[in-house]
Amino acid sequence: LLIMFFTTGSFADKIGPTDGNIVGRETDTVTLKFSYETSNEYILLYWYKQDTKSTPQFLLYKSARSANSERKPTDTRLESTTTRDSTELTIRGLKLSDSALYHCALR
């Protein structure tokens, strides 16, 4: 499986992957990690998955710093954690269908 990253954010903020492409085997657990910089205290971090020849599909969002909200994923294999300057998406029990481009957006 090959998992790739793409980032989005506002012009004054920075967000990007801390690792390059992630490779795993079926049934493995992988963690995608992004670090970010922003002066905002009310942050929402959005995760999307984009399959080949498809538009990005929303997975979940999670707040960080002073914000306190989240929308959990419908896929229970996915879990997100956040800190003051990073976010992670963990995928458990990898499947071939998890091979995709993953986006993280900062709002």
Automatic annotation (TrEMBL):
Q: Which GO terms describe its cellular component?
A: T cell receptor complex
Recorded superkingdom: Eukaryota
Outline the extent of the Ig-like domain. Answer: 17-107
Query: What Gene3D superfamilies does its record include?
Result: Immunoglobulins (2.60.40.10)
Task: Write out the GO biological process terms.
Answer: adaptive immune response
> Does the keyword Signal feature in the UniProt annotation?
yes
A Pfam family annotated for this chain is: V-set
Q: Which UniProt keywords apply?
A: Adaptive immunity, Immunity, Immunoglobulin domain, Receptor, Signal, T cell receptor
Q: Which InterPro entries match?
A: Ig-like_dom, Ig-like_dom_sf, Ig-like_fold, Ig_V-set, TCR_variable_region
Which residues belong to the signal peptide in this entry? none
What is the official name of this protein in its record? Ig-like domain-containing protein
Q: Which organism is this protein's natural source?
A: Silurus asotus
